[in-house]
């Protein structure tokens, strides 16, 4: 139930907070992030579990007025199924928790393709999920460096996987979308961009 998932996510949050210094050390060792920033990321990563532990019991549907008198129309929210999550190296803890937490809150299981540059951070976060009481097989991590394209292809073409969430380059995002077309997967793509803004003539630069 949503409340049971909420309890496990909350426990996972507590464990992330308790082990924040160790997670920060792993982040620094693996991708070179300064210790202060790594500690900030560890706290940020934990917060996703806190937030979605509160959202898990709130998976409400909607009651919609029907056009036919005496009829009632309602929606029911259900898990989509197995989610394939592909995360980048620059936020090795936060990008995983940001994707895993909402999936678990909704009742889905996940397969995470951890970045080859930062596998130990992903594995440490996953170990804490087991200590939080989340059953084995609910949160799964695949580590790879040399065969990353093959793993991506499996996640996008296997009909067992119902949704793919990817953070990374626009080029890879296009490839994943193309590969997913055969199974009509749901996709969430956070791709590279230039973050443009406008500077007016009266700006004091």
From TrEMBL:
InterPro entries: Ald_DH/histidinol_DH, Ald_DH_CS_GLU, Ald_DH_N, Aldehyde_DH_dom, Aldehyde_DH_Superfamily. One of its GO terms (biological process) is gamma-aminobutyric acid catabolic process. Residues 3-205 form the Aldehyde dehydrogenase domain. Pfam families: Aldedh. Gene3D superfamilies: Aldehyde Dehydrogenase, Chain A, domain 1. Keywords: Oxidoreductase. Coiled coil: none annotated. The active site is at 190. GO terms for molecular function: succinate-semialdehyde dehydrogenase (NAD+) activity. GO terms for cellular component: cytoplasm. The keyword Oxidoreductase applies. Belongs to the aldehyde dehydrogenase family. This is Aldehyde dehydrogenase domain-containing protein.
